[in-house]
Request: fold
Amino acid sequence: MSTAQPVVVLENVSKSYTRPWRFSRRGIVPPESVRALANISFAIHEGEICGLLGVNGAGKTTLIKILASLITPDEGRVIVQGIDQAVDPAGIRRLVGHVNTNERSFYWRLSGRMNLEFFASLYRLSGEVKHRQVQRMLELVDMTDHAEKRFMTYSTGQKQRLAIARALLSDPTVILLDEPTSSLDLISAGELRRFIREKIVREMGSAALWCTHNLQEAREVCDRILILHRGNVVANVSRSALEQEVSACPVYRFDLGPCSEEQLAAAGVLPHSFRQQDNGVEVELVVRRQELSGVLERLLEYHIPIFGFQPKEMSLEDLFRKLVN
Amino acid sequence: MFGTMVAFIKRDFFIALSYRTRFLAQIGGVFLSTLLFFFMSRLVDGGISGHLAGYGGDYFAFVLIGVSFTDYLFVSVNSFADEIRQGQMLGTLEALLCSALSPVMILFCSSLYNFLFTTFRVVLYLLIGTLIFGMQIHLAHLGAFAVIMVLTIMSFWGIGLLSAALVVVFKQPSPLGWLMGPLAGLLGGVVYPIDVLPHWLQDMARLLPVTWSLDAMRLLLLNGMGWNNVLPHMVVLFVFSLVLQGTGMVCFRYALQVARKDGSLLHY
Reply:
């Protein structure tokens, strides 16, 4: 656990949505409540990048929108730098920079600089202070040479950089990043990750909540990782703890001869994926290294042919299965 | 605060300027409309001259004041609702609402350019009317005119806030926008004096702020009347602005609260 002060504290935050009544084949379905977040509690510390990991529908975006004051939680408290969101939501918005990577959230017919100057005015920056801050942000995201071009002419990477510059205009204490690399190619995504880690967090000292469904990305960039599953935090671990977990329990992909899931279960092998192939089955297992030989022995004992096996990079799905099971 | 207001005006001005053809067409449209009213007035002048006695007797001047100032009503009703609706559709609303500015201020500031442009159009209407078509206007009581304008805009903003609240809740273009146009045209005294209407419709017409506003402006600009003659209008418009602003503010804030609660603020 970091010794730095917590800048964001969430206490028992819950959120449900009401699905309105609708018609189905069976008739009228009455309104029902769908729980998006259940008693979420965690803290983000100064200078820390906290990864929020989860598959689609896990509740990541709801959590980000609650922190950005766009959605009100049903229960619980959100506190940023000691300010309670329920008491002073505008005060919270000044401290939180939301990196909205939706390219439509800019004015396409205005230049990058004009866009930033407009958004800076929403934080009551004006005159020379505003111009200096906009220039500083353009330099920070390396967009000075393109500042006078219309937003519509920017590449996807440049649009993302401008979105980051916009989120930093108010010198926020915490930055919210909702899948910022989702529309970038591998090289640009890597550059953006490095840029945020080195320039934004290390140099400016801001904290960041980085929302992603890419386990590799979270391992590369985050200091701590929260895993959300169906609105619950199923893990809240440091990067090193997660690395240990991942390396201690690698995933192995086995190509086996024809067999059923029941036969595997009888052999004490419980795969988390099972796929029929033309000449056998392909299964994936999460096993500790020291248990691997035991698994091989049991498969042979139960006369299940082994054509081959190899370790595989653990995916988010594998990690979930492991944690949830 | 002033800097924020200027930033919104700059944003909308440069976006409007980037669509040059539309920008120029809007200005050209003012001249064509004035020409249309001029020829229309030659057709109807004799027929309704009795009804126009209280407004200087010139139908061209009557209709020009009616049509040009009614633009303020349309701008008020539509600007707020359009900012929300376009923001929802384009995706800019999320970025605006994440800022430190309150949603009511965002709406207020986003309507400023439209108000300025409407004022420019109104001045253009009056200039073309007076310089080219010989319309007579009295500018002796500009103070009273300014008070009427402020109260008019305050009342219309109330309707605009109600309109924006409906967009936040129903995620559709505001029905108030569709309703206010025909209603103002029919009952507001825009193109004919309301005393041509049956008595029961005249009573309904007096429930609209636009009726009082246009009547006061015509008395000031066309008849050269002063403070005393438009004092009742000022009182009525003041009540309208209090009631409509209050109702609009409460409804808009409630709509935002509901949308934040059910997570539909950015849906469209």
Observations:
- The two ends of chain B are 30 Å apart (CA to CA).
